[in-house]
Q: What sequence folds into this?
């Protein structure tokens, strides 16, 4: 099993999840399962080895018993007052109490103190607000669920909040976007600790489509277009996807929806909060990603099919948009598909 940053396979890293009343259950159990499955798979491949992770849930209320925001009741391993010893990774799950700013000051002081003793600290979804309240995001770049970014900006004015990425790392502080993005973050942490091979095996075992790069947008271009109330703009998507290999200039798009180029550009930018050119570029990137994942076509063919013109152009756009070149993106996917046969449960 490959290792990363010289980590020792004999080390059991203590992962502590912080949860409060009204926790978003997927913020908690999604990333928790990634670490649990990674440890299980590692031990199955290395009989006699120590677990690479120990995992516990800590309540930031005075009670171990908590009600998730979906109505499910669960029991934490201990309350924050009972936590002792060294922590490797501290992750705060989002939820109602944090979102409504109803976490008591004693818990906030504890979080600030305990974070100073952890190797790395992070949050899932709106858990970033508790990190912000504890001052742990001051002077750092951070993200959260797109719907809560403005609230985070108000509550953590000294943080540099970026609403777009799946997750953000700033030194040893990690923040992630909404809900399932916590699993992307957890996979990235597993990769940091034990290399890409184990992270990819876990992703495949949990039937996660693909590990998304941290810089990838929370929104797909197609989903963004579906949010508009203007039917002609919504219908434009399918036509664009069928014609990616053609010049998709503003005049061409405007003609398709029976608008003048100037009016189309104004309305589109107003509705979509982006320009037509940038939107088309995102659709091309998403189409190219799917082809890289699903087909054996050459880079040249994919670049032509998706309207990039040539491989260099596609590479530049991929690097700018996804922070990863297309060749490396495809290798990650093939590594996932052709990694060693998963250990049976």
A:
């Amino acid at each position: 099993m490959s290792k990363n940053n010289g980590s020792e396979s004999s080390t059991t890293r203590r992962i502590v999840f912080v949860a409060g009343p009204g926790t978003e259950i997927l913020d908690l159990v999604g990333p928790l399962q990634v670490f649990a499955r990674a440890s299980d798979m590692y031990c199955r491949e290395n009989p006699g080895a120590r677990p690479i992770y120990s995992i516990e849930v800590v309540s930031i209320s005075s009670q171990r018993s908590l009600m998730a925001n979906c109505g499910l009741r669960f029991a934490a391993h201990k309350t924050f007052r009972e936590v002792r010893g060294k922590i490797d990774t501290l992750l705060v799950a989002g939820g109602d109490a944090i979102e409504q700013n109803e976490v008591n000051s004693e818990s906030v002081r504890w979080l600030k103190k305990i974070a100073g003793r952890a190797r790395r600290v992070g949050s899932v979804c709106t858990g970033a607000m508790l990190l912000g309240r504890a001052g742990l995001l001051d002077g750092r770049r951070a993200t959260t669920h797109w719907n809560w970014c403005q609230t985070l900006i108000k509550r953590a004015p000294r943080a540099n909040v970026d609403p777009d990425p799946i997750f953000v790392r700033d030194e040893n502080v990690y923040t992630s976007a909404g809900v399932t993005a916590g699993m992307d973050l957890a996979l990235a942490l597993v990769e940091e600790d034990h290399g890409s091979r184990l992270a990819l095996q876990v992703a495949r075992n949990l039937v996660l489509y693909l590990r998304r790069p941290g810089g990838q947008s929370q929104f797909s271009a197609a989903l963004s277009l579906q949010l508009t109330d203007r039917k002609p703009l919504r219908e434009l998507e399918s036509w664009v996807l069928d014609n990616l290999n053609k010049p998709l200039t503003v005049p061409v798009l405007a003609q398709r929806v029976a608008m003048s180029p100037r009016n189309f550009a104004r309305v589109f930018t107003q509705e979509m909060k982006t320009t037509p050119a940038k939107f088309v570029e995102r659709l091309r990137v998403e189409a190219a990603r799917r082809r890289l994942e699903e087909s054996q076509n050459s880079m040249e063919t994919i670049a032509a099919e998706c309207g990039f013109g040539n491989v260099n152009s596609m590479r530049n756009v991929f690097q700018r948009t996804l922070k990863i070149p297309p060749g490396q993106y495809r290798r990650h996917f093939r590594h996932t598909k052709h990694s060693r046969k998963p250990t049976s449960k």
Remarks:
- The chain has 15 helices and eleven strands.
- Residues 98 and 130 are 6 Å apart (CA to CA).
- The mean pLDDT is 86.
